[in-house]
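Hi R.,

Quick one: here's the Gluconate 5-dehydrogenase sequence you asked about.
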Amino acid sequence: MFDLSGQVALITGSSRGIGLAAAQALGRQGATVIINGRDPAVLEQAREGLASQGIHALALPFDITDIDQAVQAVDEVSKTVEKIDILFSNAGVQHREKLLTFPLPDFERVVFANLTAQWALGRHIARGMDARGYGRIIFTGSITALLGRREITAYTAAKAAMHGLVRQWAAELAESGITVNAIAPGYIKTELTTKLWNDPEFTAWLENRVPLKKWGDPDDIAAALVFLAARESRFVTGQVLVVDGGMSSSM
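And here's the predicted structure, written out as tokens:
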């Protein structure tokens, strides 16, 4: 099951963390993976690491917040791979600050990166999927779209809207053979959460709050992604799969 041989997957924000773990998981199932990041040197290092594991990987540097650049890069790589079957739209940014002092420019920047840019690139790729009658689109949502948390007002707003977008896209693209879902990670040890997992007080709180008593790992998200990316998930669309160690299910 979950054989992805012959399929091509684009994973944005995949030079490290959840995105890189996702590329490894999809590649191990036989997919050709296109990894993405803003730094060509870091991205090439990640590609070489994947290649050393026997994974067919291509590096595609672009900044998802530069929509014209992102679309052009995807169009260029499509000349080589001819199609993109799976999109894992994972790139994102964060800004932590109290609501009453949160700068409007930072709010707009975070919402644009985590919502608008995802919408624009995802729609562009969905057009090709529509023409072929098949596709898997998976967005990175967030547990913070379900449970409020201090000091991340822009991120929460963007991810909550993303969850709504998943349902709307699923309804609109179903007749094209495209499923659209999201994964909402709980607290996962990545570069984006470095400040938190380096805080002993926060980690103690987290281990007490999460039923499984630990931080999540990028591989936990990658395993869920493989299911949503596979043909076997053909009857699953418009869903947000929460991967949080039970945090959102308990008081």
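The chain has one domain: 8-189+216-249.

Cheers,
M.
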